[in-house]
Write a structure and sequence with these properties.
The complex is a heterodimer of chains A (about 170) and B (about 500).
Chain A lengths: L7 E4 L5 E4 L1 H24 L12 H20 L13 H21 L1 H13 L7 H22 L15
Antiparallel strand pairs in A: 1-2
Chain B lengths: L1 H13 L2 H19 L5 H8 L8 H26 L8 H12 L3 H34 L4 H18 L4 H16 L1 E2 L6 E2 L13 H19 L19 H22 L5 H16 L12 H16 L1 H7 L5 H12 L8 H4 L1 H32 L4 H20 L3 H18 L5 H23 L6 H4 L1 H18 L1 H12 L3
Antiparallel strand pairs in B: 1-2
Classes of the chains: A mainly alpha (about 170), B mainly alpha (about 500).
């Protein structure tokens, strides 16, 4: 997926060629897998019941099976469709942006709102390739103060400012 | 006159000082965030949703509605001045609006967009006032069989009217329905697909899911084209007021756009989007000088902007009267209602009249506030367009993180947010649209519940769906729509409407 999907060329009788769209194929495959996963885990772990008295597994099995079938048909169709070029995944941006909420989730109870916010903002700020030390400091202080003003002062959220790890405040 | 007394109750509620205040704050914040480049109305609402949970239900919904108009409005501003439509429905505005701005006519384009939207919003509010009670009284007669058929019909409509591959949209709905199954099963109390996680016992958090698939994934996508934006040149506005000639040219498109939008907005599945495209196509066809379209024709701004505002207003109708969301924003509204302890559906008008009528009346107030807020302040909004991404994205992440944590005070929801963001991004990259997924997610539990009850009533006989005339009607209509949409000639037409000058 990292490089632009050009659509693989497959030789078919004589020299006529068909193109397979990798993106479509992968999408269909993903849906088939997810559908199967839901259907199989419902069959194994949940009571299906009957149409009259449906168990908790009935609807998920039907939906999971449906999704798998639709995914398969998309895979079949992928051979006929043209392909679109896809931009490369911005790994740095995705990684640091995701790190932000994760850091928040891990530190909010221990460190409290203010330090957790600062760390979250710092992590997310690193996502941009254009960030330097000066911009980092500027974003972290600015956004942390703004959020504290809105959520702590303005909305009065019941979250401690400085958590138990730092001596509760 | 029952309608009049209801309307009075609504106006009284909407004019409570705190409701006015939050409507204003909502419109302001919506415009503020909506104007920011790369953030559309859906992402805006998703991010600001948690803030409203501290308020009373009616004030919360009034504020959310304010955010919605504000964000949509801000989206048109960026479409006209920067050629950066916040979401698909303002993409049409960008075609001629940006060309007008390039010719120094940005001011009149913005003003006509505002005036058209206000007019359309006013008319659409009255459409809601008169049609909502009718629909509610019909819907109250529905049993589980009819409701199941209605939801199915709604989902089918949302697939056939959305743009892109029908097959993919159906898959997204099914995936959404499946995600809606996660959590404790209501009738048996059994845990489903929770992997023993306490954080999933009450289901996937709808706020975390929407902020993830609409907000975070949007940030990722912006990184794909990073560098394009820094130091964006904002075009000069010129004078603000349109000339008499421009007013005359716009009056027809505004009227037609309003009617078109009010009708199409009720249909599930991007009514606002469809109506702005349809209005543009119609104005181009009616025009004596169609060659001007795409080169800065004011009709191409006036029509679609009015249509899209009327449509986004009337899309409240199925949400308020039937509890059925017709687009992602309405799905989040439903989520907000459920979190406030209100069961969406036809009973809302009777059990929460102040909420129901107050929300409707506040729509008009919100639209008025937008005109007052936007036209004089447009210069300030334009400055916001120059906020660089390196400062904007960390702010979005920080804001969404606290917002989501504040809903339940569960750190697990933040991991759901990240998972939803990554998943949504992956799906978008694979060419899927995530709106049907959210619709399915919100409707999933309801649909299952109605299906079970319907089957118990009919003793497991699926023919019940065809012996009930109402249910049969919905199912047959849905089938016809699917078959029509799959026909090659219609498929081509659909592609034409949605791709036109993309």
């Amino acid at each position: 997926m990292g490089r632009p999907a050009e659509g693989a060329r497959i030789l078919q009788k004589g020299d006529s060629m068909i193109r397979v769209d990798h993106r479509e194929l992968a999408g269909g495959a993903l849906m088939t897998i997810i559908g199967c996963a839901f259907a199989i885990s419902s069959v194994r772990g949940l009571e299906i019941g009957t149409a009259y008295r449906m168990g908790p597994g009935f609807f998920p099995v039907v939906l999971g099976g449906l999704l798998a079938v639709l995914g398969l048909s998309q895979m079949a169709l992928a051979a006929r469709l043209g392909s679109a070029s896809v931009a490369p995944i911005p790994w740095r941006g995705v990684f640091f942006t995701c790190l932000g909420p994760v850091v928040f989730g891990m530190t909010i109870r221990g460190l409290g709102l203010a330090p957790a916010l600062a760390l979250t903002t710092a992590a997310a700020a690193l996502a941009s390739p254009e960030v330097g030390v000066k911009r980092l400091v500027l974003t972290v202080t600015g956004i942390t103060l703004f959020c504290l003003l809105v959520f702590h002062v303005g909305l009065d959220l019941p979250i401690v400012l400085i958590g138990p790890w730092l001596g509760e405040y | 006159m029952e309608t009049l007394s209801n309307l009075r109750l609504g106006v009284e509620t909407a004019f409570q000082w705190y409701n006015l205040f939050y409507c204003f704050i909502g419109a302001l914040m919506g415009t503020l965030v909506g104007v920011l480049p790369g953030i559309g109305p859906t992402a805006t609402i998703a991010m600001l949703l948690p803030i409203t949970f501290t308020l009373s239900p009616e004030t919360a919904l009034i504020m959310l509605a304010g955010i919605y108009y504000g964000a949509q409005y801000g989206g048109s501003t960026t479409a006209i001045l920067l050629n950066l439509p916040g979401e698909a429905s303002s993409a049409v505005t960008a075609i001629d609006g940006y060309q007008m701005a390039r010719m120094g006519e940005g001011g009149p384009a913005l003003a006509i967009a505002a005036i058209g939207s206000f007019f359309a919003g006013t008319v659409a509010t009255f459409v809601i006032v008169f049609s909502a009670p009718l629909l509610t009284s019909v819907a109250l007669k529905f049993g589980p069989v009819e409701y199941f058929a209605l939801i199915t019909f709604g989902l089918v409509c949302s697939v056939t009217l959305a743009h892109g591959s029908i097959l993919k949209a159906v898959m997204m709905i099914v995936l959404g329905l499946l995600l809606g199954m996660v959590g404790t099963d209501i009738s048996s109390g059994v845990q489903r697909f929770t992997f023993g996680q306490l954080g999933l016992m009450e289901g996937v958090n709808v706020v975390a899911l929407s902020v993830g698939i609409f907000g975070l994934s949007e940030v990722f996508r912006n990184f794909e084209r990073a560098g394009d934006h820094e130091g964006a040149t904002v075009l000069k506005l010129g004078r603000l007021m349109p000339s008499a000639k421009q007013f005359r040219a716009s009056s027809g498109p505004i009227l037609r756009g309003t009617v078109l939008g009010s009708l199409l907005g009720v249909l599930p599945g991007g009514g606002a989007l469809l109506s702005s495209f349809a209005s543009y196509a119609m104005e181009k066809r009616l025009s004596k000088t169609p060659e001007r379209f795409g080169k800065g024709a004011i009709e191409g701004v006036a029509g679609p902007e009015s249509a899209n505002n009327a449509g986004s207003q009337t899309s409240f109708i199925p949400m308020l009267t039937l509890g059925l969301p017709s687009n992602a924003v309405m799905a989040m509204m439903i989520g907000a209602m459920i979190m406030q302890g209100i069961t969406p559906g036809p009973a809302v008008a009777a059990t929460h009249p102040t909420l129901f009528w107050g929300l409707i009346a506040s729509m008009w107030v919100g639209n008025l506030m937008l005109v007052i807020l936007n036209l004089p302040l447009v210069g300030l909004w334009v400055k916001l367009l120059t906020v660089p991404y390196w400062a904007l994205f960390p702010a979005i992440v920080a804001f969404s993180s606290i917002g989501i944590y504040s809903v339940n005070s569960v750190p697990f929801d933040l991991y759901v947010l990240v998972a939803a963001g990554l998943g949504g991004y992956l799906l978008i990259r694979m060419g899927f649209e995530v709106t049907p997924l959210l619709l399915g997610f919100v409707l999933g539990p309801m649909m299952e519940e109605y299906l079970r009850r319907a089957m118990v009533l009919s003793r497991g006989d699926p023919m019940a769906f065809l012996t009930s005339p109402i249910s049969a009607f919905f199912l047959i209509c849905g089938l016809i729509m699917l078959v029509m949409a799959a026909r090659p000639s219609v498929r081509r037409k659909r592609a034409e409407i949605f791709v036109e000058e993309d």
